[in-house]
């Protein structure tokens, strides 16, 4: 019975069978290949950890791999501690070759936070450098892939305890793993104290995010009822308990199982319990005032231990929650054997437990907390300093855990120089581990410890500012960079002051404070006048983008960009040349100087590929996508976007691919390949799931709108365009002007003239603030022009025409030559209309714009009718028939029907009339293909005759076989003859 009350025995799981059953169901669900996340919350001692432990034991019994980790309240903890504990233990125990396979190519990245990996696998190859945000995402992806690889051989249960103390980096990593590894055989069980949630904003954000995404199951653990407390007491004491004892225990423990066990222990040890007849009862009165909290019960238990034991525990409390006897003996200045012997009483009392020979852990954080506060401040400083010096003498000073410990102990000791030194090293390590919040915390400590006159102070302020920007603490970054400016100006150090101003500009830029950003960047540029190096190139590039894109001052922006390009060339730095060439090319492109922009952008891409910078290549490809698309080279745009996707994947930054899938859906949309477009949109939806920004979702809605529009489903198009506009409106007029007009087009197609006119007026207002001749004007104006044409608004068409004319030969969602040709038809400019429509037809055929080709043929037919003359009706009818066939082939029934009605009203006999239904559900285009098959023509010959691609003919042939129940050309030809089609 006495043994049952020692901490060495596992506490029985009492009263949690419903929760355990729920966890087991989720575990079984995860075994089918779907990640599940459960967070268990409750007050301290309520049994959260015990519930998770029981679940882990049962999962292990059926062959699951269980990894255990937890956060700690103790200072001096490294970032990602829960994952370091869970994965570090696995890495140290796993067979080398198995581990090598599981880590795969991500091993070098994992080793940045898991040094055990390099110790087991040996020297690992390096990985290419990435910007800070992308490096963090690459690390998160590596951890996620590693966890997923562990589930390939067995289901995995990941226990993460005490998440109320988890650092932001750990919680960010957790969210990423849950979102990105949704199909792993993974169950993540976390626990946190509900009462401490408000003190950890990162945990609050994690709960909100996972709940919003419907990825989290929450379990709240409440107090045990009296019957369950009685069951717990019987399990711990080994005999039944008298009802009065159970009632008294429940009343004083308030149903908290940990508190109940501690009260039982105290009563047992003080002789208040007896079981002479095999039933435990209270045999004497208890003190009037019983401990009312876990802290109180711990203090009472400590009072019954030998002073030597308590003294050892106090010293151990300063070391950390887990400590080694040998290290404690060094700090205490005693023999290890004597220290270990003194700890035995505290093990029996349940205050600590022995994890492995010579290693002990405090059973509850409250016990360590009590002991820590009992050490006087003077002695505490002395011992922290002694602990720090012992750690400093050890060889492994480079690990995250060791650096964080050194920084903490020397800081607490009052040794300001050593404290600042190790705080800086811990900050640098946190930065390398992609944990900016931890880096920020350590830099703050270092600056507090450094004397005001210390020469390293300015550099530390710069690093603090950089960490603050990365951590999203822009206001703190601004304060740090402003203080750094004052520091460097007082030195004086012109280059340092320039870097501070540059950082200040970037911080203001994050807040969209354009005037402050410009002022800071111009200050940095002036201070760098005598330093024509890479820093000056970066400032010039940022100024160029700010002025041209954010402030609409294109010429000034281009001038700064050209300075950056010239300097980068003189420096012979290919990375800088890539960045500067891209910047200038992008600005020229947006000013409609595409012929100048394209060579620069292609050159930038060449440089970026040469230096193997995935992020820069991805950005260059993004610019080239627009340049090729606006130039009408849609096939080139499609190819470069596919390349962009591959490079974006290498950055491990979902944001780099934010528009890629939507673009890859847009290309088949304008080519009339609607099924392919739908497939890309499905992929886009999955790719955008991890992104918090609304802009990529808005762009996807916009793409969905165009797909519906091209298919002739104008109601669906209006719905998608409306969703896009709602989000783009939140981003401001600079974004809205690009995306509002299509909504009016969809409305007008449905006869909603009033709504469309309101939309047109708003677009016109937005365009008033845009510089004429820029591509944003071309984009919006092309849609306005089409709406004016449909309305027959000659006055608007005449006003729009000179503004759109500079963009002849360009392509948006429509060919601008076709739009210009239609405008010229209405205005009576026949020769110009002929020229523009011929150019549009040529581009549409060359680039495979089948829907646009159909629209161009219709426009040419209308031009023939408007111009009149002999044979005009015949020519118009021929063009309309060709367009009708294309609309039928594409399945755009709304346009096909409208054109059919138009043909029926033409003078003379119309060859298109309502015919008997075609057999087997064949379309008119499929019948045309079938007739030619029956004549013995090959796919290539059919493609040439019908002006189709050979691939399209193959698709038609597959549909014909499917619909007619045939499986070869001869059988299909026989079907055509039987049905009178050939």
Describe the structure.
This protein is mainly alpha-helical and about 1000 residues long. Helices cover about 65% and strands about 5% of the residues. It folds into seven domains: about 15-220, 3-Layer(aba) Sandwich (Rossmann fold); about 225-290; about 300-375, Arc Repressor Mutant, subunit A, CATH 1.10.10.10; about 385-450; about 455-515, no CATH class; about 660-905, Alpha Horseshoe (Serine Threonine Protein Phosphatase 5, Tetratricopeptide repeat), CATH 1.25.40; about 920-980, Arc Repressor Mutant, subunit A (Orthogonal Bundle), CATH 1.10.10. The protein has 49 helices and ten strands. A five-stranded parallel sheet has the order 2-3-4-1-5, with helices on both faces. Helix 14 (about 305-320) packs across helix 17. The protein starts with 16 loop residues before the first helix and ends with a helix.
- Assign the CATH topology of the largest domain: Serine Threonine Protein Phosphatase 5, Tetratricopeptide repeat
- The overall pLDDT, averaged over residues, is 88
Query: How helix-rich are the residues, as a percent range?
Result: 55-70%
Structural class: mainly alpha
CATH superfamily label of the largest domain: Tetratricopeptide repeat domain
CATH class of the largest domain: Mainly Alpha
Low-confidence stretches: none
Largest sheet: 5 strands, parallel
């Amino acid at each position: 019975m006495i043994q049952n009350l020692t901490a060495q025995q596992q506490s029985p799981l009492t009263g949690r069978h419903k929760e355990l059953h729920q966890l087991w169901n989720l575990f079984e669900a995860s075994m089918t290949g779907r990640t599940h996340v459960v967070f268990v919350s409750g007050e301290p001692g309520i049994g959260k950890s015990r519930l998770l432990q029981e679940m882990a034991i049962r999962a292990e019994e059926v062959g699951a791999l269980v990894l255990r980790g937890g956060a700690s309240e103790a200072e001096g903890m490294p970032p990602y501690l829960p994952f370091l504990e869970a994965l570090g233990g696995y890495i140290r125990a796993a067979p080398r070759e198995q581990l090598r396979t599981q880590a795969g190519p991500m091993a070098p990245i994992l080793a940045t936070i898991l040094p055990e990996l390099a110790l087991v696998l040996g020297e690992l190859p390096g990985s290419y450098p990435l910007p800070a945000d992308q490096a963090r995402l690459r690390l998160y992806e590596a951890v996620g892939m590693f966890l997923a690889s562990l589930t390939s051989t067995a289901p995995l249960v990941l226990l993460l305890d005490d998440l109320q103390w988890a650092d932001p980096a750990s919680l960010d990593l957790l969210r990423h793993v849950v979102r990105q590894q949704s199909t792993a055989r993974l169950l993540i069980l976390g626990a946190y104290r509900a009462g401490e949630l408000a003190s950890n904003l990162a945990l609050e954000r994690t709960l909100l995010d996972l709940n919003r995404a419907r990825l989290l199951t929450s379990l709240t653990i409440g107090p045990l009822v009296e019957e369950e407390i009685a069951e717990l007491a019987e399990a711990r004491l080994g005999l039944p308990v008298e009802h009065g004892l159970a009632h008294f225990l429940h009343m004083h423990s308030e149903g908290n199982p940990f508190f109940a066990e501690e009260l039982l222990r105290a009563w047992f040890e003080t002789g208040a319990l007896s079981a002479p007849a095999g039933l435990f009862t209270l045999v004497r009165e208890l003190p009037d005032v019983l401990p009312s909290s876990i802290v109180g019960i711990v203090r009472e238990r400590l009072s019954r231990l030998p002073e030597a034991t308590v003294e050892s525990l106090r010293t151990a409390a300063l070391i950390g929650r887990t400590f080694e006897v040998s290290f404690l003996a060094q700090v205490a200045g005693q023999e290890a054997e004597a220290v270990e012997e003194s700890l035995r009483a505290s093990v029996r009392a349940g205050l600590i437990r022995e994890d492995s020979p010579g290693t002990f852990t405090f059973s509850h954080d409250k016990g360590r907390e009590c002991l820590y506060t009992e050490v006087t401040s003077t002695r505490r400083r002395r011992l922290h300093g002694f602990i720090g010096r012992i750690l400093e003498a050890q060889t492994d000073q480079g690990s995250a855990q060791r650096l964080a410990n050194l920084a903490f102990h020397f800081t607490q000791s009052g040794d300001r120089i050593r404290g600042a030194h190790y705080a800086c090293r811990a900050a640098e390590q946190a930065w390398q581990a992609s944990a900016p919040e931890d880096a920020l915390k350590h830099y703050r400590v270092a600056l507090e410890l450094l004397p005001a006159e210390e020469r390293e102070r300015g550099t530390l302020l710069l690093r603090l500012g950089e960490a603050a920007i990365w951590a999203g603490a822009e206001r703190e970054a601004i304060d740090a960079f402003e203080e750094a400016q004052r520091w460097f100006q007082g030195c004086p150090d012109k280059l340092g002051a320039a870097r501070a101003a540059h950082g200040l500009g970037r911080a203001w830029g994050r807040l969209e404070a354009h005037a402050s950003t410009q002022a800071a960047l111009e200050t940095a540029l002036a201070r760098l006048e005598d330093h024509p190096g890479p820093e000056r190139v970066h400032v010039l590039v940022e100024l160029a983008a700010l002025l041209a894109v954010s402030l609409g001052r294109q010429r000034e922006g281009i001038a700064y960009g050209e300075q950056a390009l010239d300097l980068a060339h003189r420096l012979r730095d290919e990375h800088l040349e890539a960045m500067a060439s891209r910047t200038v090319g992008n600005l020229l492109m947006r000013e409609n100087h595409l012929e100048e922009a394209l060579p620069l952008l292609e050159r930038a891409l060449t440089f970026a590929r040469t230096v193997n910078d995935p992020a820069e290549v991805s950005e260059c490809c993004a610019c080239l996508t627009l340049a090729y698309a606006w130039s009408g080279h849609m096939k080139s745009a499609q190819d470069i976007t596919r390349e962009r996707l591959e490079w974006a994947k290498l950055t491990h930054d979902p944001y780099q691919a934010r528009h890629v899938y939507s673009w890859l859906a847009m290309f088949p949309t304008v080519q009339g390949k609607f099924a392919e477009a739908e497939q890309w949109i499905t992929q886009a939806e999955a790719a955008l799931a991890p992104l918090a920004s609304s802009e990529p979702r808005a762009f996807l809605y916009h793409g969905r709108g165009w797909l519906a529009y091209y298919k002739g489903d104008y109601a669906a198009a209006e719905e998608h365009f409306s969703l896009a506009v709602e989000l783009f409106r939140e981003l401001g007029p600079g974004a809205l002007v690009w995306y509002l007009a299509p909504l009016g087009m969809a409305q007008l197609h449905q006869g909603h003239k009033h709504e469309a006119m309101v939309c047109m007026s708003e677009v016109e207002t937005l365009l008033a603030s845009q510089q004429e001749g820029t591509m944003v004007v071309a984009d919006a104006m092309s849609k306005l022009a089409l709406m004016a044409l449909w309305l027959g608004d000659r006055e608007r068409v005449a006003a729009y025409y000179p503004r759109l004319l500079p963009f002849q030969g360009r392509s948006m969602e429509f060919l601008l030559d076709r739009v210009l040709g239609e405008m010229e038809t209405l205005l009576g400019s026949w020769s110009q209309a002929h020229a523009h429509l011929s150019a549009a037809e040529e581009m549409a055929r060359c680039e495979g714009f089948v829907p646009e080709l159909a629209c161009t043929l219709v426009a040419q037919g209308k031009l023939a009718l408007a111009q009149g003359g002999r044979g005009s009706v015949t020519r118009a009818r021929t063009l309309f028939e060709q367009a009708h066939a294309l609309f039928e082939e594409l399945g755009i029934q709304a346009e096909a029907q409208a054109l059919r009605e138009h043909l029926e009203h033409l003078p003379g006999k119309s060859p298109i009339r309502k015919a008997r239904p075609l057999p087997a559900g064949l379309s008119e285009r499929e019948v045309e293909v079938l007739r030619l098959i029956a004549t013995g023509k090959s796919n290539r010959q059919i493609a040439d005759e019908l002006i189709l691609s050979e691939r399209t003919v193959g698709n038609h042939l597959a549909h014909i076989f499917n619909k007619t129940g045939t499986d070869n050309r001869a059988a299909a030809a026989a079907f055509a003859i039987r049905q009178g089609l050939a």
